[in-house]
Amino acid sequence: MSDRTMAERLQDSVLFVTRDWAKQRKAEERHASTLANRRARLIRASDYYNFKSAAFEVMERAYMAASANGTLPASARQVMYQARPFIQEKMGGQQLNDQYFCQQLLPDYMEQHGANWDITYDDRGHFIEPHTGRSIGLGTISVRDYLSNVHAPKTIEPGFAAGHVATRGSSGCFRAVLFIEKEGFLPLFERVQLDQRFDIAVMSTKGMSVTACRKLADEMCGAHGIPLLVLHDFDKSGLSILGTLRQDTRRYTFANRLKVIDLGLRLKDINRLRLHAEGVFDRGNEATRRANLRKNGATPQEIDFLLHQRVELNAMTARQLVTFVEGNLKKHGVKKLIPKADLLRDAYRLFINNKRVEKIVEKAIKGIENEHIAAPANLSIRVAAYLRQHPELRWDQAVAAIAEADE
Length: 407
Prior knowledge:
Strand order of the largest sheet: 4-3-8-7-9-10
Structural class: alpha/beta
Helix content: 55-70%
Strand content: 5-15%
CATH topology of the largest domain: Dna Topoisomerase Vi A Subunit, Chain: A, domain 2
CATH class of the largest domain: Alpha Beta
Radius of gyration: 33 Å
Number of domains: 3
């Protein structure tokens, strides 16, 4: 018979049965303690920091890290990635909203501290020239590169390639810019050749006009004296877009005076075309909304309408929209571009020379087309050697360089 009493053996049995429950309970107690400590840290952090104060504390260090100490352009999101760990730590683990940082905190800091940083933003739309096939994204770098290479028309004399008139920018190419707040209409405009028939460039964005869009309009329309035609929804956002293209904002100050023409939609268009209206979901403070609509040019009747209803450009059929835009372009005197007499004369001479050169080339080709040209036996070795010296080139460029050296 064991020396252990019945009571001791019973106690052992109870402990054995309940040991897993005890472990679980202790784990829950530790978790509750950890959660309480985290909440306490969060409360303490909030006493000293909010997202703005935390971002402002680290902003310069983040930009310098992202931009190689200010020697290279840095995207807003690159700066955000450098700043985010510090900000979220100061905020007790709360997640930083990317858009809030890029669109508000970073611009606010730069404005308040006079920081002339080389910050780039992603493309938020497109700018398309007529006739040239040139299209750029409405991002900081794309717009900067485009504007830096704008030039007057040049007549390129014929050689092995046909001569042509080279343009970049409005001069000799287009006489107005059409801004539309939606990207989805570009295929429709392309199908009806709207830009080519009226010699207009088309600029589209996904909603509000971005800084790069205003920069392009400023230097293209303002500096070159061509109108900016604005097509927008009839709602608070649409009129705000119109306002950002007419007025300086926190994000952008215009260097030139722009001739901005509002193509609509407006209340008179809605009534005339009998377009379907829909309800407004974001009501907000009525006094604030009235003030915003008034600031961006709405009439009293339009304000009363827009407090409760809105109408999108999408309410028009494709044919209605094309007819609406064409009618407004004609109404505002947008016509085909015909340059000054000296450029016309230069172009005429150029294309006469084109035909003469074509005849000379055709004759020369007939003289050499039967000539046998043997490629060197070691061509592959020479191409490989050339590409080792010039790794940025493609193989055919290497062949061209070797052929030029051999000729």
